[in-house]
Write a structure and sequence with these properties.
The protein is an alpha+beta fold. The protein has a domain of 112 residues: Orthogonal Bundle (Lysozyme), CATH 1.10.530.10. Helix content is 49%, strand content 16%. The chain is built from seven helices and six strands; from the N terminus they run βαββααβββαααα. The strands form two sheets. A three-stranded antiparallel sheet has the order 1-2-3. The protein has a three-stranded antiparallel sheet with strand order 4-5-6, with no helix packed on it. The longest helix has 17 residues. It is globular and about 35 Å long.
Amino acid sequence: MYVGKITTFIENPESVKEQGQKFTRVQYSIKGKKYWRDIETYRIDRIKEVAKEMEIFPEDLLAICIQESFNCSDEAVGDGGKAIGSFQIHRGFHSHISVEQARNFDFSLNWTAKRLLAKGYNSHNEWQRRVAISRHNGSGEKAYWYGITRIHVAKQLSNQI
């Protein structure tokens, strides 16, 4: 695990450094291409806490967070402004969740973990893990490949967090 300076993806790194925030660098590859992300360490710590409480692999939640918001950013917006926050809660499908809730890391982390469990997540069964993770991103072929790719990334993250 690398804990150190901010190296990328922060709009104003000097202001973050002044606040004393620490980042953890995680690395993974997809189809031979290598990627790395600097994630705020407190976010990884929170992911580990929630994962332990809910019997979910923390690397699965981190892989989803990285995929959905690049570096687990609460400010991430996708799908034409409908998907919001670190875990990209899609307000078109979940209109009962406010923008403020979707942008709150703890809320969206807990919501995503509970949703995985509701979709059949089982840490003892890789197929059920993949299906639940796929369903985080919808249904159909795109969601199927999303699940496979997130499991692949999660396996690489498991020894880094």
